[in-house]
User: Fold these one by one.
Assistant:
Number 1:
Amino acid sequence: MDIADTTLTQRHRDLRHRLRRVATTTIAATAAEVDASGEFPMAAHKALVAEGLYAPHIPVEYGGLGGDTLSSCLVVEEVARVCASSSLTPNVTRLASLPLLAVGSAEQRRRYLTEVARDGAILAFALSEQDAGSDAAAIRTRARRTGEGYLLSGSKRWITNAGVASYYVVAAVTDPDAGAKGISLLLVHADDPGVTFGPDEDKLGMRGSPTRPVHFADVWVPAERLLGEEGQGLELALAALDHSRITIAAQAVGIAQGALDHAADYVSERHQFGRPVADFQAVRFKLADMAMHLEAARQLTYAAAGRSDANSGDLRFFAAAAKCFASDTAMRVTVDAVQLLGGHGYTRDSPMERMLRDAKVTQIYEGTNEILRVVMARQVLARGGGD
């Protein structure tokens, strides 16, 4: 089911058409295998790169499409519709590139963004640690200034794309006495001496997307790889997440759309009591509710995308709201879709159980929905009763 969307320009519609073709003809074919094996979805990655759809947000001067946030949302949504694991690679690469776009030097942007757009270089965003997840300011990874660079020591946890990424945006403490103002961002190369990776996490869902610890043992990072200024790191990281969690919302929308599509097809084809299951009112009401919540999530996500491009004052609220609502919707829709498929939905012969498992993490990463509700409430209270 596709509902006409007046928020999409013709350029967006053309982009979505290209994405859907790649997703249905190439990426969908390996989705079940990627989930079962836990192998990185290289075929999907190469297909997106070959079509120039991997990183549409990269400016034209670096070889990208110069697309807006909605374009990035469409990439993630259409890929997640058939394979959520495959949608995480462009998603996190975009997140890691946002500080580069915001404060990167001309040389940094030319070097790294060109590789992303031209060669499909994979990026990773290394912020979280064992005791610093929601409390990002509690990180302990240390970058000690020495001569013309930094010695980086510490470990990161739950890093998406770890082990397959070529470059890592790493948050580290450069001034232990400055608290949150003592955190900086450094660009680390996977082949820098002293960079090692822990084992891949054995996850419930998103099994084709690698999630691994990253360890830094006195890794030498030249000063020219500092992003922005010393002490600006946490501010840059949180700002990037405000913009990036909108594409997590898009991912949740894509998962939910795939689940709804599959459930609608199934109940239309399966017969019970001499007629299609879709003829029963209880089934129709469930489908209606699934579609209603899904479309509301999509429109909220697209509205947040517009605020990202405008850097609106209410972006933080809209980004949090879109991510919360869309991920909660993805869980609701996938659970209901499994129910509509009955016993078949509970087996690995159906993609439904994979979609349900994949949907869960969208409520957790890039800000748990509980933390984001705190963020939203803070924004509401700061308005002093509204406009």
Note: The longest helix spans residues 233-269.
Number 2:
Amino acid sequence: MAVLDGRSFVSKTRIRRIIAAFELPPNQQRTLMDAWDAFADAARRVRSAISDSTSANDPHRLRKDVAGHDELEPDPLKATTKEEFLQCMRDFHTWAYEPSYRDIAIRAGKMVGASTLSEALNPYKPARLPSHKVVVAFIRGCGGGDDDLDRWTTAWRRLRMNKPTASNVTQLPALDQRQVS
């Protein structure tokens, strides 16, 4: 198997061996190899188009709020529980113009399916921290950039690893040396 832009398929060498095993005439072998090359080029173009979908010309690209209103963007770093994290994801979905889960899945290169996204964000199901793959697909599919992805990944890791945030760690009062003795 070969990998092209994250997708697996039969390698060109293996295709060549399969074609040779059928002992086809050279012109038919060339035709089949040309078809394989066309497939590989099409796969590259599709993957390139998907990665370009977050470019500045994309109508689905997230626009930041004007100065003084940047509190509208959901901040995953404030989430201290998986329930708060999931609510933040739902809020981000609204903030990102409420794209359909199908559109999110397509824009994310079909890393995950629309039903997976729907299930992960369903407010009527018991809260379960989605996998990192789901979070990445969700943020990319909603038009988030690298800075958004960094924040969401950090928040996901902190929750997954049960690490407290700096704001919810209580400081113990310092002991007075006179009280110790």
Note: The two ends are 72 Å apart (CA to CA).
